[in-house]
Each structure stands twice: as structure tokens, then as C-alpha cells.
Design goal:
Structural class: alpha/beta
Largest sheet: 8 strands, mixed
Radius of gyration: 17 Å
Strand content: 25-35%
Low-confidence stretches: 1-26
CATH superfamily of one domain: Vaccinia Virus protein VP39
CATH architecture of one domain: 3-Layer(aba) Sandwich
Distance between the termini: 38 Å
Helix content: 25-40%
Oligomer: single chain
CATH topology of one domain: Rossmann fold
Length: 235
């Protein structure tokens, strides 16, 4: 059963071998990525998005994947060997201190990594710094809609991250509605678009593996929701 209330189309470059059965690679519009681009992929996991992006930039581009999990980076490198790419590399790095030069990338892609870090303002500024002039930012993120008890929200979101096999799932920090656009503006981004909003199905049966039913039922009956969204901005 899908966690999303939407069936996402399969796009060019996606390969289920490295997707761990999650199928997140089809949630973002990569239309602003072009042949030959240099792309930084934040939250690369085992390489699913990264190899999709590699299929777009082709041999003339380059893709660098960053993840906080050593295990994910190791698997991503292994998967890269499977494909035989020589213009894709993976590193374990702190995304608040990327250690790349200014104006190094045409596009920065970040999927479901921001909620693992408290210092979002600094992270958005780092994204802006490493982008070339008129470079593009693409983010898949989540925010909460409504007034919900913090302990219930933290437990549900942490369970969602566990189901997605993401690291540090006990320290997830979710934005409130409206905060993401403010972060983009304050970091210097323009032409901001929030698109493809869809709610997480917190009543998904897999959630019961991690949470008591009464907590899930209480969250649903409160009228609150956890909403996934894609963010796009230009330097």
C-alpha cells in the first residue's frame, strides 16, 4: 500500500533495483535539469534519485550525492559500480557545511533530508551559496497542517521515516505550514513555487507496526495532516 494518496508516474532513468521498494524517485519534476548540468543531490540514500538525475545529465554532466548515513553511501557506491557510471560520486557530509566552492552547481536537489536537521536556515543558505547564478533548487519536503500535539506529530513522522528506511528518524523536525517559503526567501531564492502537495496516509496499515491505533486515530480525528510538497526556487 502506498503512503501517498497519489500514484506517481515512472520517469526516465528510474531503476527499482536501487529504490529499496519505496519508489520516491517519481515524485519530483526534474524538468529544470538539463543535459550536461552539474547537480548536487542532498539525501541521496542508496542512489535512486541520483541515477535518475544521471540519466538526464548524461555523460557530459556530473552528479554528486550526499547523505548523512555511511551505510547509505556505501550502498550507493556499490550501486554506482553496478551501473558503471564514472561521473557520479557519493560522500557522507554535513549538509549545513557542504565544503564545496561558491557557484559550483547548476542544480541542487534535496529529498526528505531537511526534516532531519534543526538548522534549516543555514542549510538553505548553503544551497544558495553553492548554486551558480540562476541555478535551480528542487526540494521534496513535508509540513504539518493544523494545530496538533507535538508528541503525536513527532511519533507519526518518526514512524514514517522508519518505514522509509531513513536515518535519525527519532529526531525529525517538521515545518509548520508557510515556513518553507519564508526559508527560501530569507536565503535569497526567487521565482518560488510550491507544487504537487499531497497528504501522507497516516492510517496506512504499516503505521500500526510502530504506533498504537489510538494515537493514529486521534491524529486523524483532529483534522490535522502531514503534507508532502515539492519546492522550487531560483538563485
Amino acid at each position: 500500500m502506498s503512503l501517498l494518496n497519489k500514484n506517481m508516474p515512472v520517469i526516465a532513468g528510474y531503476d527499482p533495483i536501487v529504490d529499496m521498494g519505496i519508489n520516491y524517485s517519481n515524485e519530483i519534476d526534474f524538468g529544470c535539469i538539463e543535459l550536461g548540468d552539474s547537480v548536487l543531490h542532498i539525501g541521496c540514500g542508496t542512489g535512486d534519485y541520483t541515477f535518475t538525475i544521471r540519466g538526464i545529465v548524461a555523460d557530459s554532466g556530473r552528479v554528486i550525492g550526499i547523505d548523512i548515513s555511511d551505510d547509505n553511501v556505501a550502498l550507493a557506491r556499490q550501486n554506482c559500480g553496478y551501473f558503471g557510471y564514472n561521473n557520479v560520486t557519493f560522500f557522507q557530509k554535513d549538509i549545513a557545511n557542504l565544503q564545496f566552492g561558491d557557484a559550483s552547481f547548476d542544480v541542487v536537489v534535496c529529498n526528505y533530508a531537511l526534516n532531519l536537521f534543526p538548522n534549516k536556515e543555514q542549510i538553505y543558505k548553503e544551497f544558495h551559496r553553492v548554486l551558480k547564478p540562476n541555478g535551480k533548487l528542487i526540494i521534496a519536503d513535508a509540513f504539518v497542517v493544523g494545530d496538533v500535539q507535538r508528541d503525536a506529530l513527532d511519533a507519526i513522522v518518526a514512524s514514517y521515516y522508519k518505514m522509509a528506511k531513513l536515518p535519525q528518524c527519532d529526531n525529525v523536525i517538521v515545518n509548520a505550514q508557510g515556513e518553507m517559503e519564508s526559508l527560501l526567501i530569507n536565503a535569497g531564492f526567487k521565482s518560488i513555487v510550491l507544487a504537487n502537495e499531497r497528504d501522507v496516509d497516516v492510517e496506512n496499515g504499516e503505521m500500526l507496526l510502530y504506533l498504537p491505533y489510538d494515537m493514529i486515530d486521534g491524529f486523524v480525528n483532529s483534522g490535522c495532516s502531514i503534507r508532502l510538497v515539492n519546492e522550487y526556487g531560483t538563485k
